[in-house]
Design a protein that fits this description.
heterodimer, A: two-stranded antiparallel ribbon, 2 strands, globular, B: mainly alpha
Chain lengths: 293, 266
């Protein structure tokens, strides 16, 4: 009797310890998703007013109106370009940190962590100082007398992509680095001993073995790029709004809660699936191992 | 190394340097321009001045936003650390049915796009008939930071051998005593790291905070965002530089002191 009471208490203990966390997650994440989903069936009357019910009009509008499809396509295109450029720019530094005998590697790794500590807003607006009319590039070119009028480098698609690459690169480099670091060096030496050139050994051994990290980096940067609305808001022009900006203005400006909820659920489903694939494929714990090393 | 290897490696080195320049040049520009005498926020440099920092201290809105962020960050850090330690203990020290599900639920907020978390919580707050308030902002920041704290403490706890706790308990220590005297000191670095990370995430958050903040209340990043709407002023640069100093300085000092503490203990 006493023994079974003890085990009952023992069985309850993990749930007691978990209860505040689970309560917080259910109340602040699960319930909101459910509420949001039911709001997609409400009817929008006027700004800030809607009637409850079961109306599939919002979904019909989303699936039929090409206005929304254009936003989705544009978001997909820009995020894909961003992710690919991130991978291309991120691979060499990750390779260097993982493979070199450089004594101050820790410093390079630390410098990859530092951007995470610097406010995302600051990192984003800092690009105005590089690309803007009074930015470093225009100031230099005008100072050298090469141009008279500042070049329009800012507030376009290019500057949005630039800002996104800037905030995503540390993630991508870390993902690739973790994967490269885990490669058994003997495999590369073996390939070289068997007559591979350096390039062949890279192409046949190192690159294939680092593909999981590369894939994870691509996926993560795509998901994060497609979810943001702040970067286009700061660095983009009128026509550079992405799907996130559409959600923002539907909710905060038009106060159209039913449509805003519908668009949010769309974003959640599309990016959530990719995020789950990422976490299964790479695992957040791997990144943490990489960070704490 | 053969010929092609040397050139390949040179290219890798060159790209590495360029990528690091790409990552830090814009940030350096903010810091340099905050000391620029010009009354415009950009280049060219016209002289050295500290006047923008002085202006900042006189700017009530900025001081208020800073205080708000400091409070929310501190409270978020404390709440997340307490909840995170409890959850991590349950996940590492106990076996129970449904553990996999609990683990996936905990990383949930990382996987859901922040915009969606922002809309969802704001909508639910409205649904229960309440206006955005300080509590909503705080709850939101807890939601955003909690997964990271749990993951950090969990990672450390896995490395702490169970025998120490079992030894203490077999010598008559209660569960609470064992936790206080044995477990907590051993996971202290992770607790510290979790506190700092939760604070930084809260102090830094803009995407979701824009949805949650009460009318008329700004946090540090949303204040910067609204200052950017007008134009890029030298004051924004000074504010950015101060924030970089805080958010980079605090973890660096924290990391160095915890390392020194560990060394002394050895």
């Amino acid at each position: 009797m006493a023994a079974s009471l003890l085990t009952a208490a023992e069985q309850r203990r993990p749930w007691l310890l978990l209860s505040p966390t689970l309560l917080a997650l259910v109340a602040l994440m699960i319930v909101p998703i459910i509420v949001m989903f039911s709001y997609t069936f409400y009817t929008f009357q006027t700004a800030g007013v809607e009637t409850p019910g079961f109306n599939t009009g919002n979904w019909a509008e989303f699936f039929s109106d090409s206005y929304y499809h254009r936003f989705l396509w544009k978001t997909f295109r820009i995020s894909a370009i961003t992710a690919i450029l991130c991978a291309l720019m991120g691979y060499p530094p990750a390779y260097f940190i993982a493979m070199s005998g450089f004594r101050h590697k820790w410093l390079l790794l630390l410098l990859l962590i530092v951007p995470f500590w610097i406010s995302f807003t600051i990192r984003t607006f800092s690009w105005i100082h590089i690309l803007g009319e009074q930015g470093a590039i225009n100031a230099t070119l005008i100072g050298l007398g090469i141009i008279n009028e500042p070049l329009p480098l800012l507030y376009n698609e290019g500057s949005v992509i630039m800002g996104m690459i800037h905030f995503l690169l540390p993630y991508v480099i870390l993902n690739i680095y973790v994967s490269l670091e885990g490669i058994d060096r003997n495999l590369i030496s073996a390939a070289r001993t068997l007559g591979c050139t350096g390039w062949q050994a890279f192409r046949e051994v190192t690159l294939p073995l680092s593909l999981p990290g590369l894939g994870a980096g691509l996926l993560l940067s795509f998901v994060l790029a497609a979810g943001t609305y702040v970067t286009p808001q700061i660095l983009g022009g009128q026509g550079d709004a992405l799907f996130g900006n559409l959600i923002f203005s539907t909710i905060m400006r038009e106060l159209n809660w039913p449509m805003g909820s519908t668009l949010s659920i769309v974003l959640l489903v599309l990016l959530g699936i990719l995020a789950v694939i990422y976490s299964r494929y790479m695992g957040l714990s791997t990144i943490f191992k990489g960070l704490s090393r | 190394m053969r010929g092609d290897g040397v050139w390949g490696w040179r290219a890798v080195q060159l790209v590495t340097v360029l990528v690091y320049v790409f990552m830090f040049a814009p940030i350096l520009a903010v810091i340099i321009l905050s000391f620029n005498a010009s009354r415009f926020g950009g280049f060219p440099l016209t002289g050295f001045s500290l006047q923008w920092y002085g202006r900042l201290m006189e700017n009530d809105a900025v001081v208020r936003a800073f205080t708000t962020s400091l409070w929310i960050g501190t409270l978020t850090a404390i709440i997340c650390t307490v909840l995170g330690i409890m959850a991590a203990l349950a996940l590492v020290r106990y076996e129970f049915p449904g553990k996999v599900w609990v683990n996936s639920l905990i990383v949930g907020p990382v996987l859901v796009p922040e915009t969606v978390l922002g809309v969802g919580l704001l909508l639910t707050n409205r649904w229960i008939g309440s206006k955005p308030n300080f509590l909503l902002l705080l709850c939101g920041h807890v939601l955003l930071s909690l997964p990271y704290v749990v993951l950090i403490v969990q990672a450390r706890l896995i490395g702490v051998k169970r025998v120490y706790e079992e030894a203490a308990m077999s010598l008559g220590a209660s569960r609470l005593q064992t936790f206080r005297e044995i477990t907590l000191p051993l996971i202290m670095p992770a607790v510290f790291a979790g506190l700092l990370l939760a604070f930084t995430i809260s102090f830094d958050n803009v995407t979701a905070s824009v949805f949650w903040r009460p009318a008329g209340v700004e946090t540090m990043p949303t204040q910067i965002l609204s200052m950017l709407k007008v134009s890029i002023s030298p004051e924004v640069n000074a504010l950015g530089t101060l924030m970089i100093l805080v958010t980079v300085g605090v973890p660096l000092i924290g990391g160095i002191t915890s390392r020194l503490m560990m060394q002394r203990r050895r």
